[in-house]
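ok so i was messing around last nite and threw this chain in just to see what happens. nothing serious, just curious
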Amino acid sequence: MSPLLTAMSEAARAAGEGLVADSARVRTELVVQNKIGPDFVSQADLRAEATIKAILAEHAPDYAFHGEEGGRVGGEHSDLTWLVDPLDGTTNFLWGAPLFGTCIALARGDEVLAGVINMPVLGELLWAEQGKGAFLNGKPIRVSDKTRIEDAVIAFGIPHAGKPGHDLFREEMGRLSRKATGVRRTGSAAVDLAYVACGRWDAYVERIVAAWDMAAGVGIIIEAGGAATDADGNPLKLHGGSVCAGAPALIAPLTAEMRAAGASLDSERAKA
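result:
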């Protein structure tokens, strides 16, 4: 493992240890605050992000740091940025479910140079560095080789209360659930993307997703032999807000269905 991935993995593991400790006390001792809309932020998020930031700063003090909780800081003399979600799957965490993780990526613009996802309760650490393959707990991983939606299990990001896009999601799900072998949602983009990288799911699609949620997973999927675009099939922009990632042959048919769903909804609205 390179010094870069060593630092990223150390940061993810340290954050994960704190999250596991906090998870035992979350219902009674942590102060939970409301974010804008129905998302939650807890003191666990803040502690985990501070832990990650401190460790990464020792490795590369000049890089920018863009965390979900603290925003973007530093990087005035570097084009490299850490993209960090200290706790992805916060609602799962607060409700006592084990499907949450820490995401750390190093990016240059929209190019992911390295990514780490730690799912501490599951005991799974994934990492990848550009051109060097992808790994789960030290063993190489590959995305699935599915080529048809009809043979695939597709994971989706589902808009919940307070988020837009419910009508479009219903149209998309109505089209794809009739075709796919199965549809899934764990409640964490980190977990879903990690599962795609391992071949447990065949692809992941979400229309409302932040850069820090997707960057690490996208980097790992690409190094695991996968591909990624936005949800409509355009070149992926990390801050573009949507993603379709998974087995390379599934990207075009999946994004075609997503575009068709949008066109159908627009047609219905025009008639109303």
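not much to say yet. Confidence is low (pLDDT under 50) at residues 34-40.
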